[in-house]
Design brief:
One of its GO terms (biological process) is carbohydrate biosynthetic process. With about 350 residues, this protein is of the alpha/beta class. The chain contains twelve helices and twelve strands. The protein has two domains: about 230 residues, TIM Barrel (Alpha-Beta Barrel), CATH 3.20.20.70; about 70 residues, Alpha-Beta Complex (Type Iii Antifreeze Protein Isoform Hplc 12).
């Protein structure tokens, strides 16, 4: 699968997971808090910080009809109008430049999910190095074409989408001449249950679509993300906040800084553990191999003594014949005197 360059980093199987800290609305309406989240993401070792670039009017209209409300049984936002929710969660466009500047100064890659063409124009002015298309926007052909035309890598979330819809979105992007695509397996519910993560789709999506594949993880904790890396995910996206107790639209399923640090550490460990599909001895096993069992003379013997289970045993360390040869040597005679602790080898016999 082709590697995707983002700034100086490659998204590929040979590189550590590209870990995205999603700020979303967890700034709680405060630019200072937004900048603190950037700093926390950098201190935690994340690769990138992601925003969402929209206004409530670019997302929906003010309307109190039931169609324009979140369902009553929603775990977090039940009965809220779409307009009010987006008004609360939006990241003001005037903040973007300062957030991008802070992120770059801390070694993070800043980027965003645009929700209309005007948002793409803003992000292009800020020289965003890649783009994310949110799950519910992958059917917006005009938006896909506008983002694809930037020539920059594109991350697609597949939440609430069929395989056909994902494939169609990829076709739209490729038709513009852009083949730098990552698909994130995503369960578009908030919070999501691990039982609905369907991580086995990760290698299937990768092979069927010919793209890098990752995970947009809305579950609690980091276990699902670690498992995703073991199945080949090269990108991990998690929502982050400073403290869940502070509240906020996404706080309930967001990671706190210490948890984000653990996510970076453990997904990196999972990536390192992938290794090779061929069972081989590792350099770290040299000492263990030296200590494997073998046949040794375990008491002093004289020339002509018969080899028995009393004077020859399978013990640690290595150096003698493999234990499987014990039956072959029992009953033979020693051709020379030997001290206890002498490895029993064909040369000795």
């Amino acid at each position: 699968m082709k590697a995707i360059p983002v700034d100086t980093i490659l998204i590929e199987q040979k590189s550590p997971p590209f870990v995205i800290a999603e700020m979303s609305g967890n700034h709680n309406g405060s630019l200072d808090r937004a900048l603190q989240i950037v700093d926390a993401a950098a201190d935690s070792g994340a690769t990138a910080i992601k925003l969402q670039t929209y206004t409530p009017d670019s997302m929906t209209i003010q309307n109190d009809g039931e169609r324009f409300k979140i369902s009553a049984n929603h775990a977090l936002w039940g009965e809220r109008s779409l307009y009010d929710l987006y008004e609360q969660a939006q990241t003001p466009w005037g903040w973007h430049q300062e957030i991008f500047r802070r992120a770059r100064s801390r070694g993070l890659i800043p980027f965003s999910s645009p929700f209309d063409e005007a948002a793409v124009d803003l992000l292009e002015e800020l020289d965003a190095p890649l783009y994310k298309i949110a799950s519910l926007e992958i059917g917006d052909k005009a938006l896909l074409e506008r983002v694809a035309a930037t020539g920059k890598p594109i991350i697609l979330s597949n939440g609430a989408s069929s395989f056909v819809e994902i494939a169609e979105a990829i076709s739209v992007i490729r038709a513009v001449g852009n083949d730098q695509i990552v698909v994130l397996a995503c369960t578009s519910s908030y919070p999501a249950s691990p039982s609905e993560a369907n991580l086995r789709t990760i290698p299937v999506l990768r092979d069927a679509l010919g793209v890098q594949v990752g995970l947009s993880d809305h579950t609690m904790g980091i276990g699902v993300s670690v498992a995703a890396v073991a199945l080949g995910a090269t990108v991990i996206e998690k929502h982050v906040t400073l403290n869940r107790q502070d509240g906020g639209v996404d706080s309930e399923f967001s990671l706190e800084p210490a948890e984000l640090r653990a996510l970076v550490t453990e997904t990196n460990a999972a990536w390192q553990a992938l290794g090779s599909p061929t069972p081989t001895l590792t350099s770290g096993e040299t000492e263990s191999r030296r200590l494997k069992r073998s046949l040794y003379v375990v008491e002093d013997v004289n020339e002509g003594d018969q080899i028995s289970s009393k004077n020859v045993r399978s013990i640690r360390p290595a150096g003698g014949l493999e234990p499987k040869h014990l039956a072959q040597v029992i009953g033979r005679t020693f051709p020379q005197p030997l001290k206890a602790g002498t490895p029993l080898t064909w040369e000795v016999l």
